[in-house]
C-alpha cells in the first residue's frame, strides 16, 4: 500500500513540477517589463539613496540586502525570485524529509515554488521587507528542521542568526519569532537545553553582526526618532483602531470558529477521528469553492486548524505536531503591522499554509486527497497566463510594456504613455534634488530620472514636509514641485504657490501631463 501511495504521489507531483516550470517561464520572461511607480519605486529609492536621505520606515531591508542591489532592475528582480524560490524549495525539501512524507522530497518541493508564483506573480518583485522576512524565516526553519533530522547542533546557530537579522528587517513583524520560540521552549526546555543555547547564541551573533557590519547602534536608535516624528504628523496611518480591527477580524473569522469546532470535537465527540473527518469533508468542499471562485484566507486557516487537530489524533511525536502549529501561525506574525488586513497581506505567506496542508494530507490520507489538491493547482496553471493581460493594482498591463527605456544604462520596457512622460520630464527633473511630488504614483519618475525628494514619503502631508525641510535646513522656496493631471496637489495639504514664501519667484512649466513649479535658483543638471 505504501509503495502504491509513493508511486502515485510522485506521478501527481510531476504535474506540480511541470506547472512550476511553466509558471516560471511566464514570470522570468516578463521580469524586464513594467514598473510600479509607487511601491516599487519607494523600495528602490531606499536602496539607492538611504545613506543621503532620512527614512521614517520601521524596516531595514535596504541595509540588510544592499549587497545584492543593482541598478539593473531586471537582474534585481531575478535575484529576488531566485532567493525566494530557493529558500522555499529548501524549506519544503527538509520538511518532507522530516515528516517522511510518501512522496519524493525533490518533487514536492516544487509545490512551494508554485505557491510563490501564485502569491507574488510578476509585481513588486524587489527585496523589500515582506520578501526579505520570508527568505529569512524559510532559512531559519530549514536549518531547524535540519537539526531535527540529523541531530546536529551547528545548524541551530545559523538558524538563530537568521532570526537575529530578522529582528531588524521588519520591526513590527518580529512577533513571528514568538511561535518559533514557544516551539523550542515547549519541546526542549526539559529535554535538551543545548538546543535553546545554540539558537540564542546564533540570535545574539546575528544581532552583533548587524551592528558591526550593517548599521551602527546610534543610527538604529535615531531611526525611531524619525518614526516618532512621522507618526505625530500622520496619525491616520496605522492607528490603534486598525490593529484592534485586525485582531478582531482574525479572532472572529479564524480563532473563534476553530475553537468552537475543536472544543466540540474534544469534549463531546466519542469517535473523534470519524467526526473530525466529517467536518473536514464539509470544510474541504468550502475550501474548493473558495479556491476556484472567491478566495477566502479565513476559510483556509479554519480548515488548516481542524486538519492539525486531526493530525494530533495520530500517534506521532509531539515535535512534529507542534511544528505544524508553527507553520500555521507564521503568516499571522509576518503580516501583522504591515498596514493591511490579514485577508490582503496574509495570502503572501501561503507557502506555510500549503506546506502544512501537504504534510497532513500526505501523512494520514489516501493519495486521492492529494490528487484533489493537485487538480486545483492544474486549474491555476491554466489560468496563470491571464496575469499578462490584467491591469490590477500595479496600474499597467504586461502586454502593453513594449517601449524600451534605460535606467542607469540598463534596459526596461514600459508602456508608450509613461515613456512619453519620462521624456517630457527629463529636461526639468534629471538629477535634480529636493523634488516634492503630489502623489506617490509620481515617485517612479523621480527614480528613473535620478531625482531626489527631501525625504521618502508615501503621503504628501503639508505639515510633515515642512517639518522635514526645516529639520534638514532646507527651504520650501528652493524646492521643485511636481504634479500631474491625474494626481494634482490636494488643496487641504500642499498648494505649491501657497506653501512657499515668495510665489512670485516661481516659474510654472507645463510638460505633457505634468505641471512643474520651478524655484528661482533652478538650474538644469
TrEMBL record:
<feature type="transmembrane region" description="Helical">
    <location>
        <begin position="129"/>
        <end position="150"/>
    </location>
</feature>
<feature type="transmembrane region" description="Helical">
    <location>
        <begin position="106"/>
        <end position="123"/>
    </location>
</feature>
<keyword id="KW-1133">Transmembrane helix</keyword>
<feature type="transmembrane region" description="Helical">
    <location>
        <begin position="370"/>
        <end position="388"/>
    </location>
</feature>
<keyword id="KW-0472">Membrane</keyword>
<protein>
    <recommendedName>
        <fullName>Glucosyl transferase GtrII</fullName>
    </recommendedName>
</protein>
<feature type="transmembrane region" description="Helical">
    <location>
        <begin position="12"/>
        <end position="28"/>
    </location>
</feature>
<feature type="transmembrane region" description="Helical">
    <location>
        <begin position="162"/>
        <end position="189"/>
    </location>
</feature>
<feature type="transmembrane region" description="Helical">
    <location>
        <begin position="278"/>
        <end position="311"/>
    </location>
</feature>
<keyword id="KW-0812">Transmembrane</keyword>
<feature type="transmembrane region" description="Helical">
    <location>
        <begin position="348"/>
        <end position="365"/>
    </location>
</feature>
<feature type="transmembrane region" description="Helical">
    <location>
        <begin position="323"/>
        <end position="342"/>
    </location>
</feature>
<feature type="transmembrane region" description="Helical">
    <location>
        <begin position="195"/>
        <end position="221"/>
    </location>
</feature>
<feature type="transmembrane region" description="Helical">
    <location>
        <begin position="242"/>
        <end position="266"/>
    </location>
</feature>
<feature type="transmembrane region" description="Helical">
    <location>
        <begin position="74"/>
        <end position="94"/>
    </location>
</feature>
Amino acid at each position: 500500500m505504501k509503495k502504491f501511495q509513493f508511486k502515485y504521489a510522485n506521478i501527481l507531483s510531476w504535474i506540480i513540477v511541470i506547472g512550476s516550470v511553466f509558471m516560471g517561464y511566464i514570470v522570468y520572461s516578463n521580469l524586464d517589463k513594467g514598473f510600479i511607480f509607487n511601491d516599487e519605486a519607494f523600495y528602490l529609492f531606499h536602496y539607492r539613496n538611504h545613506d543621503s536621505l532620512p527614512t521614517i520606515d520601521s524596516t531595514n531591508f535596504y541595509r540588510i540586502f544592499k549587497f545584492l542591489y543593482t541598478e539593473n532592475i531586471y537582474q534585481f528582480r531575478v535575484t529576488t525570485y531566485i532567493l525566494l524560490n530557493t529558500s522555499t524549495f529548501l524549506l519544503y525539501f527538509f520538511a518532507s524529509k522530516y515528516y517522511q512524507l510518501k512522496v519524493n522530497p525533490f518533487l514536492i518541493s516544487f509545490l512551494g515554488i508554485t505557491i510563490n508564483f501564485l502569491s507574488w506573480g510578476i509585481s513588486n518583485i524587489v527585496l523589500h521587507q515582506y520578501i526579505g522576512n520570508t527568505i529569512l524565516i524559510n532559512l531559519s526553519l530549514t536549518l531547524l528542521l535540519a537539526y531535527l533530522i540529523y541531530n546536529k547542533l551547528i545548524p541551530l546557530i545559523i538558524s538563530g542568526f537568521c532570526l537575529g537579522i530578522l529582528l531588524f528587517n521588519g520591526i513590527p513583524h518580529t512577533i513571528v519569532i514568538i511561535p518559533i520560540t514557544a516551539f523550542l521552549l515547549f519541546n526542549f526546555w526539559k529535554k535538551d537545553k543545548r538546543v535553546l543555547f545554540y539558537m540564542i547564541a546564533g540570535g545574539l551573533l546575528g544581532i552583533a553582526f548587524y551592528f558591526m557590519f550593517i548599521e551602527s547602534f546610534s543610527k538604529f536608535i535615531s531611526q525611531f526618532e524619525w518614526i516618532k516624528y512621522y507618526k505625530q504628523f500622520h496619525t491616520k496611518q496605522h492607528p490603534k483602531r486598525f490593529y484592534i480591527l485586525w485582531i478582531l477580524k482574525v479572532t472572529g473569522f479564524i480563532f473563534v470558529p476553530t475553537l468552537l469546532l475543536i472544543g466540540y470535537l474534544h469534549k463531546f465527540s466519542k469517535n473523534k477521528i470519524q467526526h473530525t473527518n466529517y467536518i473536514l469533508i464539509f470544510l474541504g468542499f468550502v475550501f474548493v469553492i473558495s479556491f476556484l471562485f472567491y478566495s477566502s484566507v479565513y476559510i483556509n486557516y479554519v480548515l488548516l486548524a481542524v486538519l492539525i487537530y486531526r493530525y494530533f489524533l495520530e500517534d506521532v511525536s509531539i515535535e512534529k505536531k507542534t511544528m505544524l502549529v508553527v507553520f500555521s501561525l507564521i503568516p499571522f506574525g509576518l503580516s501583522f503591522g504591515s498596514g493591511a488586513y490579514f485577508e490582503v497581506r496574509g495570502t503572501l505567506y501561503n507557502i506555510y499554509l500549503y506546506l502544512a496542508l501537504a504534510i497532513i494530507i500526505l501523512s494520514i490520507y489516501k493519495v486521492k486527497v492529494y490528487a484533489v489538491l493537485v487538480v486545483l493547482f492544474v486549474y491555476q496553471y491554466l489560468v496563470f497566463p491571464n496575469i499578462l493581460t490584467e491591469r490590477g493594482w500595479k496600474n499597467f498591463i504586461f502586454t502593453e510594456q513594449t517601449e524600451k527605456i534605460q535606467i542607469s544604462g540598463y534596459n526596461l520596457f514600459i508602456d508608450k504613455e509613461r515613456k512619453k512622460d519620462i521624456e517630457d520630464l527629463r529636461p526639468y527633473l534629471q538629477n535634480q534634488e529636493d523634488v516634492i511630488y503630489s502623489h506617490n504614483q509620481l515617485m517612479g519618475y523621480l527614480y528613473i530620472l535620478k531625482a531626489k525628494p527631501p525625504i521618502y514619503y508615501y503621503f504628501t502631508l503639508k505639515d510633515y514636509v515642512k517639518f522635514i525641510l526645516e529639520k534638514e535646513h532646507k527651504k520650501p522656496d528652493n524646492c521643485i514641485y511636481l504634479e500631474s493631471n491625474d494626481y494634482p496637489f490636494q488643496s487641504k495639504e500642499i498648494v505649491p504657490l501657497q506653501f512657499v514664501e515668495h510665489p512670485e519667484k516661481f516659474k510654472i512649466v507645463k510638460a505633457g501631463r505634468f505641471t512643474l513649479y520651478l524655484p528661482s535658483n533652478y538650474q538644469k543638471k
